[in-house]
Amino acid sequence: MSMIDEKPALAPNGTCTVCFAIGQPRRSVDPKSSGSQLDPFQAKKLFSHSVVTSGCDLVCGGMARGVKKLPKANRSSTTTSNTAATIPSTSTPSLPAPFIPAPVALLALTNTLPRNHVFLVHPESSLPGLRKRLFLVPVLLNIVIVAGLCWRLYYAVPVYLEQISTILGYQTPYSVKPKALSWSVLFEIVAYRTFYLTIDYALFGLLGRWPWEFLFGDRYGRHTSAFHWKWSVGFNREKEPIVRRARRWDASIYQSEIERKHQGKPEKEWTKEEELAVYTKCSDALRQFVTMKNALSLLDKDWDLDYRAMVDTAELIDAAKLTWPDLDHVVLVPWQGKWYSWYPHGVSTAISSGQPAKKQDEKLEEFKKALIELKCEDIFYRWIEIVQFETSQPAGLTPNKKMEMEQELKNMLEARNKDFASFLQVIGGLSSVPGLGIGR
């Protein structure tokens, strides 16, 4: 017996069990009248229903002809009962396709993160000596700021004490007799004192926050500072975990979710604008030539360092609760009480496709160390930018383009009086140059 000959069971409202189960009456929709007014989620739901009901017409179309038609008086009541019997959808909106539920291996990390920001996690593999030298820059800068503020305090405190005494009625050099002075002189006195008060407010209220936050952190960083981070993690690790937190651009996503939850409204899917913002900002921030920079060089208008999370991640790695492969360029997004992850580079973090990630990373590290020994580390970062740019072009890395890139690398080394052939011999030939070892 074919499927068309079988008679499926009827639901109480006279429709088939398939139509009754999805909670929608069988209907046709005029695309001219209603299609343009459906949001993407409703359109997707309606499309799913139309597919099911189309199959239902094939299965039970013959049966429908065998069902006795109801009188007109009973049709309205049947429609009403059908609407009342509609089962609400229990499915919850999901994130876009790249995101999947975070693996269990990341549970120890996600339990320590707040649920109101997008996070990026990746390793930093710069040399310990370089990290130490780069960290000295903010240390010295903050020392200079503190010294300048102390110098200003030495001269400003006596002045403000005398001005306060003047306000309290004591006779001081800053006492003024308004009746004995002209308006122009009074204006100059007020402008002079207001100007210096504004300057001091800017120095201590705005610039003075930098040393304070460097030492003690702030509430946005969960009261963990850069100084505490380096004091806890140190400089001698082969790799350091970097955790970046989105700045204000993701606030609208989670603020709207909180408001809808408090108002009792159903959960919503991401809008196209939100999806595009997360996708572009995360993929750009995790490009390989970006993540090769030092941690303090990654601060920008879109991303901030989460020092508390970096300390926690380092401790979890030391306790063997996290492994480096799980932290290799991953995006973590909290949504509707759960954590979702996305690895933009997939299983391979190679600059050019075609080789296993481990082998490619080893070659990349050898290439970098060879340039550092030649005191040409800036050429390494310049080369990464060149490879990233050329691979993003529509034509890709063609043989002619690789020859041009090879010549450019040769010119950069020869400009530093370095022998290109000797350099290739050290790293193992042209196949060990990132971006040039594939398809030659």
Short description:
The protein has 440 residues and is α+β, with helices and mostly antiparallel strands.
Descriptive notes:
The protein is built from 16 helices and 6 strands. A hairpin with a 2-residue loop joins β5 and β6 (about 340). The chain has a 6-stranded antiparallel β-sheet, with helices on one face. The protein has 4 domains: about 15-85, no CATH class; about 100-125 and about 240-340, no CATH class; about 130-215, no CATH class; about 355-430. The relative contact order is 0.10. With about 450 residues, it is of the alpha+beta class. The two termini are about 60 Å apart. The protein is extended. The protein has helices at about 15-20, 40-65, 70-85, 105-110, 130-165, 185-205, 210-215, 225-235, 250-260, 270-285, 290, 305-320, 355-375, 375-390, 400-415, 420-425, and strands at about 100, 120-125, 240-245, 305, 330-335, 340.
Mean pLDDT: 76
One letter per element, helices H and strands E, the order comes to HHHEHEHHHHEHHHEHEEHHHH
- Beta-strand content: 5-15%
Share of helix, binned: 40-55%
Choose one word for the global shape: extended
Q: What's the main sheet like?
A: 6 strands, antiparallel
Over all CA atoms, what is the radius of gyration?
A: 33 Å
DSSP, total strands: 6
Give the tally of structural domains. Answer: 4
- What class would the helix/strand composition place it in? alpha+beta
Tally of contiguous helical segments: 16
Low-confidence stretches: 1-92, 347-358
Write out the strand line-up for the largest beta sheet, numbering strands in chain order.
Answer: 1-6-5-2-3-4
How far from one another are the termini? 61 Å
Transmembrane segments: 134-155
Keywords: Membrane, Transmembrane, Transmembrane helix
